[in-house]
Amino acid sequence: MHHMFKDHQRGEKRGFLSPENKNCRRLELRRGHPCSWGLCSQALMASLAGSLLPGSDRSGVETPECVQGGVSDLQEEGKNAINSPMSPALADVHPEDTQLEENEERTMIDPTSKEDPKFKELVKVLLDWINDVLVEERIIVKQLEEDLYDGQVLQKLLEKLAGCKLNVAEVTQSEIGQKQKLQTVLEAVHDLLRPRGWVLRWSVDSIHGKNLVAILHLLVSLAMHFRAPIRLPEHVTVQVVVVRKREGLLHSSHISEELTTTTEMMMGRFERDAFDTLFDHAPDKLSVVKKSLITFVNKHLNKLNLEVTELETQFADGVYLVLLMGLLEDYFVPLHNFYLTPESFDQKVHNVSFAFELMLDGGLKKPKARPEDVVNLDLKSTLRVLYNLFTKYKNVE
């Protein structure tokens, strides 16, 4: 099976083997690792040295301990070089293990926060979004902090989203070159975001230092600005360990970092309504509202021998919304105007958008939700759309 691969000269990854091939292991050349081929050749020399140097059993001459130690170290280095590309990244760096200069400060996410399901969901949603945007570039991002720190992927992402071309070198190997590229990319980001008055919670040093919190803040802001067709989990907060070295001693403290708020706040819809209050303060009444809306939609969909049991999932592809509008307004919707069995995300968005157009034609206000919110199973958005229909058509038989 053919797989997308990435240019190793750009510090990216190549996937050589299909995951389905159970007899093979997927090999990756990972950024940040020493060139495994050079060290493997050293390991080969070390193996030869073990049998040919004067200290081997084939000669009666004893090898000095320093030579034996050097050979052993070289063999171990070669072994590590072979294994390291397939080893997972170090999970966490503990404050006591962190090497800092005087007054230098480092931050890291508390390990317990990394295990939070909402945090994991946020990382996955952003990863999937980046890979969807960059699919034509044949770039596959697997780890945010490892793949975005040098500015290469961020450059491609911003160029694709903004439809622009940045004046930067395509390949940068040195740290100075990487930071210069990052500076150019982040300045372009700041030019986009500054008019919105957002607080920018990242810097060249924090991104290049693989600070995951800073990288997440940057990506969330980009997703918000470009109205990405994704559903970011709400109220994601992480505990961050801040380590600073003063007078030769490490001092650590914990702070709370809010990565996301509500969908409405993040996507620029700041006016609250009854559904915000319902979700925030009366979740026990949510089932009552859902049951009433299910009764309403089934009253009409039953005419087509259709039935809804789950609001958040069964309206996500837009088909039932289109058919419901036809029933409520008493007209037949031509099948060529929408996808009766949508398969892709874009087809589902088309259906929901078309249903919204039918609502506008019927005299309803433009829905507060985005089509992408409904497709992404955002219950609050779906309820808002259905409640607007209920308000106007509740007396229609």
Automatic annotation (TrEMBL):
A molecular function (GO) term: actin binding
GO cellular component: actin cytoskeleton; focal adhesion; lamellipodium; Z disc
Domain Calponin-homology (CH) residues, every copy: 120-227, 287-394
Top-rank taxon: Eukaryota
Pfam families: CH
GO-annotated biological processes: actin cytoskeleton organization; establishment or maintenance of cell polarity regulating cell shape; lamellipodium assembly; substrate adhesion-dependent cell spreading
Main subcellular localisation: other
Keywords carried by this UniProt record: Actin-binding, Cell adhesion, Cell junction, Cytoplasm, Cytoskeleton, Repeat
SUPFAM superfamilies in alphabetical order: Calponin-homology domain, CH-domain
Entry's localization field: Cell junction, Focal adhesion; Cytoplasm, Cytoskeleton; Cytoplasm, Myofibril, Sarcomere, Z line
Cytoplasm found in the keyword field: yes
Family: Belongs to the parvin family.
Protein's UniProt name: Calponin-homology (CH) domain-containing protein
Species for this entry: Colobus angolensis palliatus (Peters' Angolan colobus)
